[in-house]
Specification:
Order of helices and strands: HHEEEHE
Structural class: alpha+beta
Radius of gyration: 14 Å
Shape: globular
Length: about 100
């Protein structure tokens, strides 16, 4: 996990989680549920523009989590149309993820 600056109530909840219990063991949806706050948006992260590799789950303009998946089991990583399913992504098991909190200017 990578932490980038500042604090917030959602960050406090995230920071209280034991991340080791999620990595390669539990679906992405479990950690999102355990955070106990709704993300406001998400952005697909791709490799070579057609392969899904991660998603940024945005909680505010200052806080987001990047969750990576190495081996997809519920959907194909390759999709030139970028028509992946968020619900299928939530079933995948994640590899180490990054938590980023952007400093306010």
């Amino acid at each position: 996990m990578q932490v980038c600056a500042k604090d917030s109530s959602v960050f406090t909840r995230i920071n209280a989680l034991r991340f080791s219990k999620y990595i390669d063991r539990q679906p992405v949806g479990n950690i999102l549920s355990d955070i106990g706050a709704n993300y406001i948006s998400y952005t697909w992260g791709t490799v070579r523009s057609t392969y899904l590799r991660f998603i940024y789950f945005v909680y505010s303009q200052d806080l987001w989590i990047e969750i990576k998946v190495k081996d997809f089991k519920y959907q194909e990583s390759y999709n030139p149309q970028h028509s992946w399913s968020i619900e299928e992504f939530k079933k995948e098991k994640q590899v180490p993820f990054d938590l980023c909190i952007k400093e306010k200017l």
